[in-house]
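hi! just following up on the protien thing from before. the input was this:
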Amino acid sequence: MSLNVIDLIKGQLGPALVSQAASQFGESESGISKAIGGLLPAVVGGLANNADNPGVVDAITKASSSGILGNLLGGSSSNPIITTLLSSLFGDKIGGLVNSIASFSGISNTSAGSLLNLVTGATVGTVGKYAADNNLGASGISSLLNDQKGIISSLLPAGLSLASFGLGAENWFGQAKETVSSVTSTAKDNLAEGVATARENVNEGAREIREQFNNNNNDNQGGGSIWKWLLPLLLLIAAGYFLWKQCEKKQTTTTMASSTDSTGTPADTASATTPATTATPAAKTDENIDLNGVMLKGYKGGMEDQMIGFLKSGGYKNAADDSALKDKWYDFDHVNFKIGSSTELETGSQGQLDNLVAILKAFPDSKIKIGGYTDKTGNEASNVKLSQARADYIKAALGKAGVGGQVLGAEGYGSKFATVDAKASDAERAADRKMSVRFAK
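and the predicted 3d structure came back as:
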């Protein structure tokens, strides 16, 4: 699964920035938020379409050290990296893009233009930082951007399309269109060939039956009556059989066409041959987890559920010492830090921290330890430092919530316990980037 860079960028464009931008531009927060929702996929799409442009890749590389992310509202509009980049991405389409976003979100063209610069700054700054943190060179950045081509259109808000920006898919992703046309043409050719073959087979079958009919008439004049009704029946059966075979061939052709991705590369063979009825694993959803009559929202079998079950079973109380507890860690399901940060949590993280506080307060004799982990990419000393800072942040947050006395320690392990290869995809390596908690004594 490819990394969706839009998910990385959203952390830079959260409620706080929306509020500040609304105040600075004199617009409503809903209008600013709506405009950002339309601009972000458009900008990422522009980068994806220029993934192999050395100037664009160089701009992303420079953005990581230019300080753009630290001054999005103040410095984006005049930053030469951004203004030059926008010209490369959209050329004379910038005006149409700004007009469309302004109309869609209900803000002024001036505000929409400023937001275009801001979103572009957030995008190249975040991608540049990600590339630097993960040691991606120019080819790595190009590959990352190319991976975005298949998801851009689906991320545009309802009411917007690439065509509404004057950026039709045929202009941006012509290769994909050519591939689809090629597959369609091949399917049509196969279908026409199959129909012709079926027609020939039916005719041949009919000819053989007629010959047999004539032979039987010559041999036995009295037996011709049976063929008067049998001949049409046999012809009907033959025609039905060959039409059925043709439908089967058409279905096979359709399956082969759908197993080709947008770049014309055959999809994974196992995926292409898997029956359509194969079930897709259901996504996890929060449920009510009973904490002594108080309902916490969490995954069934997730961190809260496991910890409460262990405490209620007497497992903690009966543990002789810390050595009996040290090997069982509970991974946070929802607590995540923003990329590269040890002081800012992603939206939705606080709820699970509150759940942990509630569990500790319900079992005041229990003690815990916090652990922070990273994947195998990057400098290990930096990884340890980052994971330690994040573990300390969680510990401090629990202290502020009134349960600090139950937190015996916090340690960052870096990539010491990472299991996924550094060359694996970002989605695969995400399993190693986590925060965990264990009981301690």
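The radius of gyration is 31 Å.
Residues 398 and 404 are 6 Å apart (CA to CA).
cheers
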